[in-house]
Amino acid sequence: DGFERSIRWMLDCAAHFDVEIAFVLNADTGYIFNLSLELYREVIERFRASFPEPKIICGTTAVGASGDHFNAEWYHPQLEIAQSFDNVEVMIMTSKLLNELDNERRRDAYFEIAEHINVPAIAHALEPAFVPWATPYDPWLFYELAQHPKYVGGKVSTLDEPHFLYWSAMCRDLGLDFAP
Hints:
alpha/beta, 42% helix, 180 residues
């Protein structure tokens, strides 16, 4: 009951101040890797049962990833679930094997994932402050993702304010239609 009241309060505030609000589901790197597909779907279904209208952004990651080589198909199960709902965007959460790719192969992997995206997408950059295997995006990779028509924005999980400000300034200065 308290959760639903808090969401209604946020929606009322957004309406009062005439701002768009979107709710982010299944996008915490602390647990998304541990959700079964059934639980992943249930989180979205429960939210939609109470709040069918607001935009949601669903985190997606590499389900069942194993081995030494990245496979974009690992993202398909969660993408299919998330994209089956209305008024949704997806956030492509990084994964250990995706993160281990060099810049060009990482770009290619994000582009390959995008072939299965039919809603607006956000690229997620996770930095070492959160997990030791994470590496920051360099400017070339960020620019390449910003140029892709399916990626409309990026989320930077960082504790390094200058890095976030760099992303923002680059988008502004290059006139990129991409929101950091």
